Amino acid sequence: MFLNTYLKYHRAFFKFLLLSNLVLSFFSCSEEASIQSYSIPSEYNGPIVSWKLPDNWGENPDLSGPMAGSFHIKTKDGPQGRIGVMPFREQVSTVDVANMFGREMGYPTFTESSLAPMLQEKEIGSRTFEWLTLKAKSDPVSSSTRTALLALLRQEGETWLFPFIAEQKLVLKESENFIQFLNSCTLRSANNKPIIARSPPSENRINKPSPPRPTRDNPWTWEIPPTWEDGKASSMRIASLKVADKNGSKLDISVTTFPGDVGGLLANVNRWLGQIELSPVDQSSLEKYCSPFTIAGNPGHFIEAYGEKDALLAGALFLGKESWFFKLLGNRTLAEKEKGNFIEFLHSITPKPKQ
Amino acid sequence: MNNKINKSSLSQRRRDFNFLLPLASLRLTIALLSLSMILIFVATLEQVRIGIRGALAEYFESFYGIWYYPEKFWGGEILQDIPLPIPGGYLLGGLLIINLTAAYIVRFQWTFKKGGIQLIHLGIILLLIGQLTTQAIQEESRMQINKGEKSNYIERFHGVELVIRDVTDPAQEKVITVPQELLQKGGSHSDKAMPFTVNVLHFGVNCDFDFATAEKPRSPMAEIVNRGVGQSANLNITAKEEDFSSDALNFGYIIFELLDKGQSLGKWMSISHPAGNQVWSQMSPKLSDMGFQSIRHNGKLWGVALRQEREYLPFSIELLDIENEFYQGTEIPFNFESDINLHLEDNQTRRALVYMNTPLRHGGKTFYQYQMNDSANYSVFQVISNPSWLVPYIACVLVSIGMLWQFSFHLIRFLRKNSQTPQKA
Question: Is B144 exposed, middle or buried (0-12, 13-18, 19+ CB in 10 A)?
C-alpha cells in the first residue's frame, strides 16, 4: 500500500530532489551586504561632556590628545581662538595646570605662592570653578596679546580643565559666552558615573592628592552680621560666607591669606577690578578705589569699586610675611545694601587671644 | 509480483528521466573520486606554501584552482611555468551529488532487498550536501574574556567592519556598522542612523604600519590623513596581501573621509587589530585611541574604529576561573580549562566547564577552548556557528543503518540457505 502510494507520487519526489539540488547550488549566494544599525547598553567608559554652544561658536571635529571637546569662535576673519574641554582622571594641581600654559606664555615657573594672587574662584550655576587668566608676557600692554583663560572644575576625584586661548580682545568679548558655555556643560566622568554638582566633602578624598591648602590656621576672630550665612567650603579660603536676597542676587564673602605681598596693592586691586569688568588703574589713580583702613589695629586698605552689574568691597592687610584679604563680591545693589555690614565686619576683626 | 512492479518502476523511471542516464554513470563516479584524490594531493602540497586557510579557499571553496607544478619535482624545471587547472571542491562535490542523485533515480531498484544500498547512498548524498552547506554558512569567531568579567559578543576571525558609535547617551549607545563587502567596493556610504556620509578612500585586509620619521615620511596614501590617530601619531601604512598562514596576523586598514552635507569633516585612518582593538593601548600610548577615535558632531560624541566583524549574542559568558596544565617538563599543553557562568536570556545562570574537546553548545553556537593566557588572566573561545552541524551525524547514522540492513539481509539469506541444506552424515 505504502509502496503503491509512493510510486504514485514518485515524480513529485524526483522534482523535489532536483529542486533541492537547485536550491542548494544557489545556497552559497549570501544576502547582499548592507549597513547595520543597532543599540546596545553603553560600553564606552570614557568621559563624556555635553553642552550648548553659543551661536557664534563652532565645533572642531578633531579631538586630539586628551580633549573631550574643542571649539572655535566664528569671526568675519574665519575661525579664531580655541576653547577646549580636557578631563583628567585624577586631581591635578592648579600649579601644574598653570605651568602647562604659563611656560608657553613666557611666565617663570609658578609656585603655590606666586600663583595664589592670580587665582580666583568663580561660581557658575551650582559649580565653583578655579579661574586663572594668563596673558602672554611678550607684550603685556597691547590689547592683541595672546591670553589663556583657564577654568578648572574639581569633582568626583577628577579635574576638568576648560582652556580658552585667544587674543585678549576676543577673550574679553567672549567671556560671557564662555561662562554660559560652562554653565550649560553636563559632565560624565570616565567611570560612567554622572558628576554631581558639588565637590564631595574633603573626608571622602582619602588617598587623593588635595589641592593647595592654606599654610596656617585662622589667627583672627570676627563677628558675622545676622544676614550672612556660611558659604561654600573651599581649601583656598580661611572663611567663606554668603548673602542672598529674595530676587536671587548673591554676594560672596571670602577671607584668604597668602605668603608675601603677592604683588602688592596695585596688582591685587587691578585683578579685582577685572572681576567686575572695570579697567585697570595705575598707581596715581589707585585712590579712586582705595582708602586707608585699620584692620585689627594694623594699617590696611579699604577697596570699594562698582561695576555695571557687580561690585567689590575689600579689606587688604599687608603684614610683610603674609597678606590678608577680606573680600565681598557680587550683585551691585545688594553690595550697596550690605556695605554697612561689611565695614562692621572689618571693624570686628581682632587677633585671637593666645592660649 | 512485487519484483515485477519494481522492475517496471525502474524501467519507467529510466524512460521518464533518460537524460539522467549519462549523469548516473558509474564511470563518472570513479572519475570524480579520482579527481577528488588529485585535489586532496595538490591541496596538501599547496598547504605548505599558502597555509590551511589559503588551500581551503583556493581549492576546496572554489569551482577550480590553478596549480603550478613544483619546481623540485621531476621535470619541474620545464613544467613549473605551466598553469594546471584543478577541479575545485564545489565542482567535484556538486557533480558527485548530481551523480549520486541521478543514480538513485535511474539506476537503483527501489526494493526492500536493496533498501540498505539506497540508505547508504542517501547518507553519502546528505554528507556531501552537509559539507557544502557548512562551507557556505559556517562562521568561525572568537570570544575573549578576562577573568572575572563577562562578554556578550563574538568577533569573526576573518572579516572586518567599520563601526561608528554614538556614545552621548550614558545608558545606551547607537552602533552603525559598515561591513567589509561595502568597504571593499569603496565609494560613499550613508545611512539614516548616522548624520554623515562615509567616503572610503583606501581599504585593505592587511597592511604594515609604523611611525613616520624624517627619513621615512608618510606614504602618499597615509599623507592625506588629517584627523585622529593617523595624524596625531604620524602613522605610515603600506598595503599588504592577505596572509593565509595559520599564525598570520592580518591588520585590516581603512582611510576614509566623513562628510556632512557634502562638506568634509576630515580624513581619518583606522587599523583593525586581529586580536581585538583593546591590544592597541598595550602596543603604544600613541595608538591607544585606535579602538575609539572620537569625533564631535552637532553636540554628540561619536567614536569610529575598524574592528573585526562583531556579533552580539542574546546571552553572556562570565569567566570565573582558568586552569592551564602542561605535560610535565614540557611546554606542550595538556589541558586548558575555563570555568564559566552562562548567563541566559531569561536571567538564569548555568555553570559549565569548557576544556579541550569538551565544548559548550548554546544558542546554535559551539564554544571550544581555543587559547588561554594564565598570566594575563584571559581565555579565548573559538566559536563555531553551523546550523547544519547535525547533518553529518544523520548521514553517518543513515549509512550505518544501510550497511547493517544490507549485511543483515545477506546474513539472514545465507543462514536460511544454510539451514535448508541437508547436512552430510
Answer: buried
Q: Which of B9, B173, B227 sits opposite A42 (nearest CB)?
A: B173
pLDDT confidence of A25, banded at 50, 70, 90? low
The answer to whether the CB of B129 falls within 8 A of the CB of A24 is yes
Q: Rounded CA gap, B315 and B150, in Å?
A: 10
Residue B47 and residue B39 in contact, taking contact as beta carbons nearer than 8 Å: no
Of B185, B177, B266, the residue nearest B229 (C-alpha): B266
pLDDT value at A289 more than 80 = yes
Q: What is the pLDDT of residue A198?
A: 26
DSSP B352-369: EEEETTB-EEETTEEEEE
For residue B270, which amino acid is it?
A: S
Residue count of chain B: 425
Quote the CA–CA distance of B209 and B229 in Å, as a whole number.
Answer: 13
The yes-or-no verdict on residue A17 having pLDDT over 90 is: no
Domain boundaries A214-351, corresponding CATH code: 3.40.1000.10
> CA nearest A53 in B: which residue?
B299
Is B38 part of the contact surface with chain A (CB cutoff 8 Å)? no
Does the pLDDT of residue A247 top 90, yes or no?
A: no
Q: Find the mean pLDDT for residues B339-343.
A: 94
Mean pLDDT of chain B: 87
Asked if B129's CB is within 8 angstroms of A44's CB, the reply is no
Give start-end residues of each CATH 3.40.1000.10 domain in chain A.
Answer: 48-188, 214-351
CB A38 within 8 A of CB A26: no
ipTM for the whole predicted complex goes beyond 0.85: no
Query: In Å, how far are A36, B95, B391 from B394, measured between CA atoms?
Result: 36, 22, 5
DSSP state of A194: B
From the number of C-beta atoms within 10 Å of its C-beta (0-12, 13-18, 19+), residue A316 rates as buried
Tell me whether A40 touches chain B (CB under 8 Å): yes
Return the top range by mean pLDDT from B202-211, B299-308, B369-378: B202-211
The three cell numbers locating residue A331: 550683585
Select the more confidently predicted residue: B421 or A347: A347
Conformational region of residue A62, where left means phi above 0, alpha means psi within -120 to 50, and beta covers everything else: beta
- Tell me which of A155 and B47 has the higher pLDDT: B47
Chain mean pLDDT for chain A: 76
Lookup result for grid cell 572663611: A239
As a whole number of angstroms, the distance between CA B352 and CA B375 comes to 22
Minimal-distance CA residue of chain B relative to A1: B2
Quick one: pLDDT at residue B43?
Answer: 92
Residue with cell 550672612: A228
Residues of A in contact with B292 (CB under 8 A): 44, 46
* Interchain CB contact of B136 with A (< 8 Å): yes
Residues from chain A contacting residue B266 (CB–CB below 8 Å): 61-62
Best B63, B175, B286, B294 member to test A by mutation, with max A CBs in 10 Å, is B294
The helix/strand/coil state of B239 is strand
Burial of B103 per CB tally in 10 Å (0-12, 13-18, 19+): buried
Res A156: pLDDT: 67
d(C-alpha B350, C-alpha B356), whole Å: 19
Spatial contact of A19 and A37, defined as CB atoms under 8 Å apart? no
Strand bridging mode B333-343 / B349-355 = antiparallel
How far is A302 from A293, CA to CA, in rounded Å? 5
The CATH architecture assigned to A48-188 reads: 3-Layer(aba) Sandwich (3.40)
Domain extents in chain B: 2-137+389-420, 140-145+313-385, 155-309
Q: Locate B87 and state its grid cell.
A: 577541479
